[in-house]
Design a protein that fits this description.
CATH architecture of the largest domain: 3-Layer(aba) Sandwich
Number of helices: 10
Bound molecules: uracil
Mean pLDDT: 88
Radius of gyration: 17 Å
Structural class: alpha/beta
Helix content: 40-55%
CATH superfamily of the largest domain: Uracil-DNA glycosylase-like domain
Largest sheet: 5 strands, mixed
CATH class of the largest domain: Alpha Beta
Length: about 230
């Protein structure tokens, strides 16, 4: 079997595994001899096993231009889970979410509400960098978002924070603009969800910071009373 055939087969296997896991609760764990060595989970936790499913992902065209799959970062049992859009250049190089300018602002936003970056789980709708930082395409979001949903299911945060229109629209399955989505209460899979602007929107226009502050200032109380 050629390399292309083998990797196509491995993708089918891992798609099927994810489907069986989501539908019937079968274990996601990679099987020896089927996955590449790089696809082996580093431990047996569900999040590591899910990460291993993506380590060599070729499910959409974004794989062609990426340096790393940016799966997510933070404690497996974080109380707060933050969802952005897609990795940028710096994230692609480091393999970590929100480590560029938007990430620095996100860290400050979190500190303003008494949360350290290390205490939250951070990920994106799309795990690979779109070329030239363009918006992720609908097929890329559709391909990648089952992994986001699975991350949420595994982590079971007490609060979800969606940053920007792609995260909010993907989680809520809507096309409403972000300015209409923000400022309202939601739940996703039983988890309270707050929607706000992406930090990049605040870098682009600092006047947007007031909206973000309005949206996130109640988070400490939500976590206290939950
Ligand atoms: N913007 C995002 O949406 N995610 C990142 O990880 C970095 C920038």
């Amino acid at each position: 079997m050629g390399g292309d055939e083998r990797s196509a087969l491995m993708e089918c296997v891992s798609d099927l595994r994810l489907y069986l896991h989501q539908r019937y609760g079968l274990p996601l764990k990679a099987r020896r001899g089927v996955d590449t060595p790089a696809a082996q989970p580093s431990d047996d936790s569900p999040l590591s096993t899910l990460r291993a499913e993506l380590v060599d992902c070729r499910r959409c065209a974004l794989c062609g231009g990426r340096t790393s799959v940016v799966f997510g970062e933070g404690p497996d049992r974080a109380q707060v889970m933050i969802v952005g859009e897609a990795p940028g250049a710096e994230e692609d190089i480091q393999g970590k979410p929100f480590v560029g300018r938007s990430g620095q602002l996100l860290t400050k936003m979190l500190e303003a509400i008494g949360l350290s970056r290390d205490s939250v789980y951070i990920t994106n709708v799309v795990k690979c960098r779109p070329p030239e930082n363009r918006d992720p395409k609908p097929d890329e979001v559709d391909t990648c978002s089952p992994f986001l949903r699975e991350q949420i299911r595994i982590i079971q945060p007490r609060l979800l924070l969606a940053l920007g229109s792609h995260a909010a629209q993907t989680i809520l399955q809507t096309k409403e603009p972000i300015m209409q989505l923000r400022g309202k209460s939601y739940t996703y899979a039983g988890v309270p969800l707050i929607v706000t602007l992406h930090p990049a929107a605040c870098l682009y226009n600092p006047n947007n910071k007031k909206f973000v502050w309005e949206d996130i200032k109640g988070i400490p109380n939500l976590l206290k009373n939950d």
